[in-house]
Write a structure and sequence with these properties.
single chain; 496 residues; alpha+beta; BirA Bifunctional Protein, domain 2; Rossmann fold; Translation Initiation Factor IF3; 11-stranded mixed beta sheet; 5-stranded mixed beta sheet; 15 helices; 25 strands
Length: 496
């Protein structure tokens, strides 16, 4: 370097303009919130810790719900609905269970309002017994199971409900942790311990199918440590996903409850030998926090990227209109493409809303629409369309193709987008699992702020007295004992 060169200030590399600010690298938690806002998915409610799920966010949830519901019913599980309010005495029957939720419970103590004499209202009628707003439903469903199960012929009993849940979160974050959230909870009862254990594993695989083949999120299947089990369960199975900041998201869980709740609620059946026996039960749940997982797994610095199977709009058709004459010519062209796509059961939208075409493009980018089709007078004259994929940003990936070819290949395009998103996430997951052989190496790994992801260790480390101190210091938890390692390893990491 010459003296002249040294005297000149170094040129700063120009920062690429992004739709989301800050970027993932700059501030991942704030980036997450801004993606939700830019994609118009949800907003905070006036009720502390609760959110309003807006149409785009709820549309995603409806599609996830449909995919999972079909799979649940394929397992001979029937949907039902149980009360939102649970008598306190029911919950008190299972001490270990309530101990795990006690600090999160919302309690209803009154049933009537009356004039307070100062122009306002006050609670008036105190309930003889308080009610708990549903944090989970093992107890209330257990009470019904005790009525419905009398004979071995009544088993297995397989129930599911789609419902809302209230848990008084101290540090809420939209979709990930809110005081009220939406979920499904399955509750099955069996005659034997073996059937219950098999069911817990089978339902975990149902969830894994949704995560990998619908949400394009790779997961690690495994068992929770005894300390991390669901309150009252004898075994908890889990799916653990890795977000782009290296933290784990407990995607969903499936619990073998043994006879804990059947004994608490006297769920008995008469066996073939005439003896009375307690049933064996399972429970399993999947919630709207999954949407948070989709954002943090697939989102980029321009917003949301949606796997096609859960995208409310899979293909957006955007016209470039200069004047009214263009509308008259382009609308039949766009309508024709729209109808062809709908005939193939593609969720397509011809975006004729007010505003510039460029603004509409960015709106669909931020919302994660998998495929954008642009049409203008040039495309009309040539019988083509301009196609962009959300998973492959940039003008270099934009293609001009004949309309017929696009329609014929749209299913393959959407499948390829899914596979691309899944493979990106899987590569990231596998590249960010680090093997260490001692607690000293564990401490060293997480002391380096540049390191992120999971650490994989011999499962015997769980008995090491030094582990707890390190875990507390770095906010770590054992994520799971993976099935793929035959129970010999444990994954440790930071989590949401």
């Amino acid at each position: 370097m010459t003296a002249q060169q040294a005297s000149k200030p170094q040129m700063q590399k120009k920062k690429n303009k992004t739709a989301i600010s800050p970027t993932r690298d700059e501030n991942f938690p704030e980036w997450y919130q801004q993606v939700i806002k830019a994609a118009d998915m949800a907003e905070n409610s006036a009720v502390r810790g609760c959110m309003v799920i807006k149409p785009h966010g709820y549309g995603i949830w409806e599609l996830i719900q449909k995919e999972l519901d079909n799979r649940i019913k394929a397992e001979d599980v029937e949907n039902a609905y149980f009360p939102l309010l649970i008598p306190l005495s029911y919950i008190a029957k299972e001490a270990e269970h309530i101990d795990g939720f006690a600090t999160e419970c919302a309690v209803v103590t009154h049933h009537r309002l009356e004039d307070d004499g100062e122009g306002g209202l006050k609670p008036a009628g105190e309930l003889a017994e308080p009610y708990i707003v549903r944090p989970t439903s093992e107890t209330i469903i257990g009470e019904s199971m005790a009525k419905w199960v009398n004979s071995y012929r009544d088993l297995p009993l397989k129930l599911n409900q789609w419902a809302n849940v209230m848990r008084w979160e101290m540090r809420p974050r939209m979709f990930l942790r809110t005081a009220e959230f939406l979920w499904q909870e399955g509750h099955n009862a069996f005659a034997t311990a073996e059937e219950a254990a098999q069911d817990a594993r089978r339902m975990l695989e149902v969830y894994a199918d949704v995560f990998e083949n619908v949400l394009a999120i790779p997961v690690k299947r495994g068992q929770k440590t005894p300390e991390e089990r669901f309150p009252g369960a004898i075994d908890t199975l889990t799916l653990e996903a890795m977000m782009q900041d290296g933290k784990a998201l407990q995607a969903c869980t499936s619990h073998n409850l043994g006879q804990t709740f059947s004994k608490g609620f006297d769920i008995k059946y008469q066996a073939e030998d005439g003896n009375q026996k307690h049933a064996w039960t399972t429970s399993w749940g999947f919630s709207t926090r999954t949407i948070g997982g989709v954002i943090m797994t697939h989102g980029d610095d321009d917003g949301l990227r949606l796997p096609p199977k859960i995208a409310p709009t899979q293909v957006a058709i955007i016209p470039f209109i200069r004047d009214d004459a263009d509308i008259e010519k382009l609308q039949p062209y766009g309508d024709g493409l729209l109808n062809k796509l709908k005939a193939k059961n593609i969720r397509a939208r011809f975006d004729l809303s007010e505003g510039r075409a460029g603004d509409k493009i960015w709106n669909h980018i931020k919302k994660g629409t998998p495929v954008r089709v642009e049409i203008g007078m040039r495309e009309l004259e040539e019988g083509v369309i301009s196609v962009s994929r959300r998973d492959k940003p940039g003008k270099e990936h934009k293609q001009t193709v004949p309309v017929g070819n696009f329609v014929d290949n749209i299913e393959d395009i959407l499948n390829d987008i899914h596979e691309n998103l899944y493979n990106e996430a899987k590569t990231y997951l596998e590249q960010n699992i680090t093997d260490v052989s001692s607690t000293e190496e564990l401490e060293k790994f997480y002391s380096d702020q540049e390191n992120k992801g999971f650490v994989r260790m011999d499962v015997s480390v769980l008995k090491d007295p030094a582990l707890e101190t390190i875990m507390t210091k770095h906010a770590l938890t054992p994520r799971c004992i993976p099935f793929e390692d035959d129970g010999k390893k444990v994954l440790i990491g930071k989590s949401y």
